[in-house]
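Input record (Table S2, row 238):
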Amino acid sequence: MLRSCVSRLRTLAVLRGQPGVAPLPAKDPWSPRRSFSSEVIHMDLSLPNPSWNEDMRLLFDQFMKKSEDGSWKHLPSYKSKFTQRTEDIKIYFPDAKLMKEKLSQAQLFPRSLEEGLGFEYAMFHNCVEDRIVCIFQGGPYLQGAPGFLHGGAIATMIDATLGACAIVAVGVAMTASLNISFKRPIPLGSVVVINSQVDKVEGRKLFLSCNIRSVDEKTVYSEATSLFVKLDPKTRLT
Ligand SMILES: CCCCCCCCCCCCCC(=O)SCCNC(=O)CCNC(=O)[C@H](O)C(C)(C)COP(=O)(O)OP(=O)(O)OC[C@H]1O[C@@H](n2cnc3c(N)ncnc32)[C@H](O)[C@@H]1OP(=O)(O)O
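Output record (tetradecanoyl-COA complex):
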């Protein structure tokens, strides 16, 4: 509780530009330098960076430790590079040339904000139980109600985590439906844990669920259920 309050105060101090607190970087959001440097595009952004608070680092270290025996696996995450091979995705587009052009300019939405300002997260896959845990620290640009995360930002992280869970399980799949119950507001700057799992597979349909809890697991912030559909290789995305 104390830690989350300190973290919230720090966030608010950054926003108000208080002395001793580093101001937010004033960069032109459309500057090509920030978006298309190949160094950034191919850098794994789910590794610790200076914006991560103590909870985030501790959890990351714990999961990395659990990954040593192979039961958990850290999933890398890039600004625009897909974990799927381009060949696996290409078949779903009617025009391969157009798809290549589009992808060369595209960025994964949760990775589109500067370090520390938006979505800071790392995902771990439990290879034995077939579930994914995402540790998530929502930055000051994700505000909804004052001091708390925007519901759309929460939905984004839920979708991304469930999506990763679906893709790891069956390959390329898309969200068909997503139902979220927001139970408690999530303080800006705090760290939460998203636990996702595949509940049932029926043909191309995957039913998944997840919950978002505090680090001490005492608070349930949100719960969600979803349907993902594995894409049919015969159908094109139009
Ligand atoms: C190219 C992708 C890249 C992937 C890499 C991403 C990495 C990043 C990860 C980020 C992750 C972020 C992820 C994102 O943000 S994904 C972005 C948000 N999602 C979309 O834009 C998806 C839009 N929808 C579609 O494209 C199609 O409708 C899909 C592909 C979903 C299904 O169209 P398709 O033609 O393939 O299937 P079908 O119509 O034959 O239906 C098949 C079965 O499914 C049942 N059904 C369908 N819809 C619904 C529904 N709404 N409720 C209940 N049931 C539904 C249907 O009744 C049938 O059941 P049955 O009759 O057989 O029993």
